[in-house]
Design brief:
heterodimer, A: alpha+beta, 16 helices, B: alpha/beta, 11 strands, globular
């Protein structure tokens, strides 16, 4: 397939109806692993957070982590699911070198939470995304392929395995298939993952960082010809590592499938790998001959039977749902639906809220996060909250502007300094000498110089054309490298010439 | 002195050590000497840990010297089945694939025994991964029955049963998945008990079939087995299937049973565990033992458990299914054997070559059967159906226990068979577990106690009880033992050849 055969997006929408589905894995932030007491801290030396259980040594047995079960139930409740009164873990059997037991303890036909939903808003329109199931499982280790050019298994001379991640509790949240989204499918997909992230972050059960892999998303996409009755064959796109890529992955897969169908081709049921850099996916494992995981109930673990009273206790601990909270904040901040949607879709609600708490106005907080910072995040391909700047720093920056100590233009330079790791706004201002000069004594000389250098302009002002003062202000700003306070300069000029 | 020490019961040995009549080190030496003298012929042990045993014995003697109160089995030697992991001591589960593997941790029962001052002499031979009924499936050669060295000591815990029957150790640990304690105990003329599923921790048992595996004691007397039972039993938070209940008071039950009074007890003889496939000599010995029970005041009735007929079929689906998953971890990546890692073969090739070379024929057969039974499209017909049979068997037991306190049967259909006789006939080999499978599938306690001889070879009586009523097994077993006046093993011929 070549990209030159791709139809336009509008064309695809005119002829096909997309059906999407999302499977999201979330690493829980429990102190210990799912079935043993090993630490879950990210970034430790390889194979230092392991024991007989998470290494799958002979004779070792799993013991379920109650905190992980509690977190999963809370996620289920927050997603409006029913909590199973009785369910079991199951073994998913397949061979893979980073899987210590060559089976994963997961859940199969008896998940902990079933049948919920999550409402998301795109362009003022609310969409209800059905949740099929939420279940609990263990993560695998991580393979590192050495000796190849790409770090992928192809071309590698050998592989190393780090089992620190093996056994970290993983919650899988599976949506029902979502038809009827039309052109909005990619945006709704992104909005869903964003909202899911907000919900889980609000519960405090995971740091849900896509770039660190603590939240991972697989996107299922299929196309049905408009007027058709049967859904098309779906593909599963993996390696979708940012919110932005969720949208890109759905869109690119819709285009790819349309071009295959348009040329009389057949969609192969397969796993595809999304490439962040190019925005396209490549074919992975074919699922035509479905892998037989030989699921059976895990005999090493007792069934889970959460006491209904305990479930109700957990329900009482749920925070305000993000959608309710958003409405409350929208009212407080005096924003339109559209403005609030933009904030939510940018994943900026918490950031703006925290910036306001740190003293900024809602208007200025929104301006910084959705303006310069959103552009920066987009350019560097990271999430907004992963930028190296805190809401407190943004508020401090705005406070400097409000105090007249820097102007907007200087503020941007200060922000650059903060993002470059030079410290808080105050520190950057001092280090870079960016403070506005409003000292009339210091500015007087520059003003006199500008008048002397521009006798024609000076004369016009003397003749009453006050508007011509702008040219002299500009000249002063130039000699002071923008650090002069424009208002003061203007006053000094008029003082001398009128 | 040595010759006398090895013939003592565990209870008497501990008492003599506690009384200062003999040291634990002397006892250990006596058994190590015996092993050196006979194990070349019996082959109970895969590995003898003389240094570890003497150090443990010395610690007991030191503790005694410093006035510490010793536990009821302190200083008593024990032979440990190689399926139980031992920190710092090679553990192979009878398989080539684990050759050289040194566990970094102790099984919970290993820790409990060490803490009790029990002296672990070494690791005993077994059918590979506990799959078999003769110990001939060991990757390290067969074990011989001390009653007749041309016969098998049963399996899979044949090394442990032979060690005790050959007076190499007064106690040993076996594991029982479908009969691997009771059947070897029966054919070597000793006592072996499979506890209620969940009564003894499985943490550190190399899993064969997780929903069935239980460790349990072997001894030459019922009391010895009971003393060991109380050491290893009890709740373990490290095993989710471990029961959080008080340990059954089996020592008291054994002492009570030894009084020989079974008045008020109703014993059910299971009709389905007899008849075709059972040796007449075995059935005759069993019948004579039922008469002894009646003489001691028990009411003996016949009960029918119709679904027991399906136990063998259900077991040979459930156990292989679980083992196909449990044994997947032996892949050469993290420990054990690695074959074909030449820089050319792919990872999958190395995994395949390792498993091809590392597993024996019976293990491969069961992995294949289990893989098939769990496959999509076959699951319901095989694994699912077998689980239903399991429920029906449990219901048969429940119905029988409405009128009976215990159920009895021969522990094996035949006496010890000859080495090599059944190795090429899996179905004949599987039939050795006919009597023991129902209690395994239902998770119930069951003991095998010597009940006379047939053609000069020992016959075992199986006594089954409701869940958690392990004490009933010991009580009735002790009564049977008492009715013979002395342990049957005393009639065993001295090792010949």
């Amino acid at each position: 397939m070549t990209t030159s055969t791709l139809p336009t997006y509008d064309d695809v929408i005119a002829r096909y109806e997309p059906v999407i589905g999302l499977e999201t894995h979330v690493e829980l932030g429990t102190r210990t692993k799912m079935f043993c007491g090993c630490s879950t801290v990210f970034g430790a030396e390889p194979n230092t957070q392991v024991c007989p259980v998470c290494l799958g040594l002979p004779g070792s047995l799993p013991v379920a982590n109650k905190a992980a079960i509690e977190a999963t139930i809370r996620i289920g409740l927050a997603l409006n699911c029913s909590i199973a009164e009785w369910c079991r873990f199951a073994r998913k059997n397949y061979f893979y070198p980073d899987m210590p037991k060559n089976y994963q303890i997961s859940q199969y036909d008896e998940p902990l939470c079933v049948d919920g939903y999550l409402d998301v808003v795109v362009d003022g329109q609310e969409y209800r995304i059905g949740i099929e199931r939420v279940h609990l499982e263990e993560d695998t280790g991580k393979s590192l392929h050495v000796g190849g050019a790409t770090g992928r298994i192809h071309g590698a001379t050998h592989s190393l395995v780090d089992f620190n991640r093996a056994g970290i509790p993983l919650v899988e949240i599976v949506t029902k298939p979502v038809p009827g989204l039309g052109a909005k499918a990619p945006e709704v997909a992104k909005a869903y993952v964003t909202e899911l992230r907000n919900v889980i972050r609000g519960l405090g059960v995971s740091d849900v960082r896509m770039e660190q892999g603590s939240m991972r998303c697989d996107v299922n996409t299929s196309l049905m010809p408009r007027g058709g009755t049967e859904w098309g064959t779906r593909t599963e796109t993996k390696n979708v590592n940012s919110l932005r890529s969720v949208e890109r992955a759905v869109r690119s897969e819709m285009l790819r499938q349309a071009s295959v169908l348009d040329t009389g081709g057949r969609i192969i049921q397969e796993t595809r790998h999304f490439h962040e850099d190019t925005g396209v996916s490549t074919s992975g494992r074919s699922k035509e001959e479905a892998t037989d995981y030989r699921y059976f109930p895990e005999p090493d673990l007792a069934p889970l039977a959460p006491d209904p009273a305990w479930v109700e206790e957990l329900r009482a601990t749920l925070p305000e749902p993000p959608s309710v909270r958003r409405r409350r904040l929208q009212d407080a901040w005096g924003l339109t639906d559209h403005d609030m949607d933009s904030i939510a879709n940018a994943g900026a609600v918490e950031l703006i809220e925290a910036t306001i708490e740190a003293g900024a106005s809602s208007e200025t907080a929104r301006k910084w996060w959705l303006g310069v910072l959103a552009r920066r995040a987009n350019e560097t391909g990271v999430e907004l909250d992963a930028l190296p700047v805190t809401p407190a720093q943004v508020a401090a920056l705005q406070a400097l502007v409000d105090a007249g100590r820097i102007n907007d233009k200087l503020a941007r330079q200060v922000l650059e300094g903060v993002l470059a790791g030079e410290g808080d706004p105050e520190t950057v201002v001092a280090a870079r000498g960016l403070e506005v000069v409003s000292d009339t004594g210091a500015l007087g000389a520059a003003v006199d110089e500008a008048i002397a250098a521009n006798p024609d302009v000076a004369q016009k002002i003397r003749d009453g054309k006050v508007a011509a003062a702008g040219a002299l202000v500009g000249a002063v700003m130039k000699t002071t490298k923008g650090q002069a306070d424009a208002k003061t300069v203007r006053e000094l000029i008029l003082e001398r010439l009128t | 002195m040595s010759a006398e020490l090895i013939r003592l019961t565990a209870a008497d040995t501990a008492a003599k050590i506690a009384a200062g009549e003999v040291t634990a080190v002397e006892v250990a030496h006596a058994h190590l000497d015996r092993i050196a003298a006979v194990d070349e012929r019996v082959h109970s042990f895969l590995q003898v840990d003389a240094d570890g045993a003497l150090a443990a014995a010395e610690a007991v003697d030191t503790a005694r010297a410093s006035g510490e109160k010793l536990g009821p089995l302190a200083g008593v030697p024990l032979a440990l089945k190689d399926v139980v992991v031992t920190k710092g001591l090679e553990t192979t589960s009878g398989s080539k694939i684990l050759k050289g593997w040194i566990p970094p941790y102790d099984a919970t029962i290993t820790t409990k025994m060490r803490d009790a001052g029990i002296v672990i002499l070494g690791k005993t031979n077994m059918d590979e991964f506990a799959m078999g009924s003769s110990t001939e499936n060991s990757a390290y050669g067969a074990t011989h029955n001390p009653w007749d060295l041309d016969r098998t000591p049963g399996g899979s815990s044949g090394g442990s049963s032979a060690a005790v029957a050959a007076f190499e150790a007064p106690l040993s640990i076996g594991t029982d998945t479908g009969g691997s304690i009771r059947q070897p105990a029966a054919v070597t003329g000793i006592v072996g008990h499979k506890p209620t599923y969940g009564a003894v921790s499985r943490r550190g048992l190399i899993a064969f079939s997780s929903s069935l595996d239980q460790a349990g004691p072997f001894g030459r007397t019922v009391l010895d087995a009971a003393l060991l039972h109380e050491v290893i039993a009890g709740h373990d938070p490290g095993d989710s299937t471990s029961l959080n209940v008080p340990v059954s008071q089996v020592v008291a039950a054994a002492r009570e049973g030894a009084q020989g009074d079974l008045g008020g007890l109703t014993v059910g003889v299971v009709r389905e565990l007899g008849g075709e496939g059972y040796e007449p000599g075995v059935e005759a010995a069993a019948r004579e033992t039922y008469a002894r029970l009646e003489q001691m005041g028990a009411k003996v009735v016949e009960v029918s458990c119709p679904n027991f007929t399906y136990a063998l079929a259900a077991y040979y689906l459930i156990a292989p299914s679980e083992c196909s998953s449990n044994l997947a971890r032996f892949d050469s990546v993290r420990y054990g054997l690695r074959v074909g890692d030449d820089g050319v073969n792919s990872l999958e090739d190395v995994m395949s070559l390792t498993r091809e070379a590392g597993f024996g024929a019976e293990v491969k057969r069961r992995i294949m059967i289990g893989t098939y039974a769990l496959s999509s499209g076959y699951y319901d017909a095989y694994y699912g159906q077998a689980q239903k049979v399991r429920t029906l068997i449990s219901r048969d037991f429940a119905a029988a226990f409405e009128t009976c306190d215990v159920l009895v049967s021969p522990a094996t259909p035949t006496v010890a068979f000859r080495l090599g006789e059944r190795v090429d006939d899996p179905m004949a080999m599987y039939a050795a577990d006919l009597c023991t499978l129902p209690a395994s599938l239902a998770g119930l306690p069951a003991i095998s106690v010597p009940a006379g001889l047939s053609e000069g070879l020992p016959v075992g009586l199986q006594i089954m009880a409701p869940a958690l009523a392990d004490d009933r097994c010991y009580r009735v077993a002790a009564a049977v033992e008492a009715s013979f006046g002395h342990p049957l093993i005393d009639d065993a011929p001295e090792l010949h050849r």
